[in-house]
Amino acid sequence: MYIVHSMFLVPVQKVDEVIEIYKNRSRLVDHAEGFITFRLLQNETKPGELTVYMEWETKEAFLAWVSSDEYKRIHELEKKYPDQELASIVPAITRYKVVAL
Length: 101
Prior knowledge:
Layout: E1 2-9, H1 15-23, E2 35-42, E3 49-56, H2 59-66, H3 69-79, H4 84-87, E4 92-97
């Protein structure tokens, strides 16, 4: 199993807006080969800190997703988001190989 975290900081007054964006996400990734789950996490003590948590069967499945046309299409739309403050947020991405269950 392979896990990817994308942590990003959002201005507190825009957190609810970002959460709604993720609640209404395209769900294209849900159909990707090797995809297991998606979660949006909010830090309890720092509400502006959000993390996208994704599980994949393998690292190769994740890498295939990030090189797919669907992935590129989703991320191009993010760059065109009308709120440029949100569009310019760059996440800190951390990848993990699961070594024990």
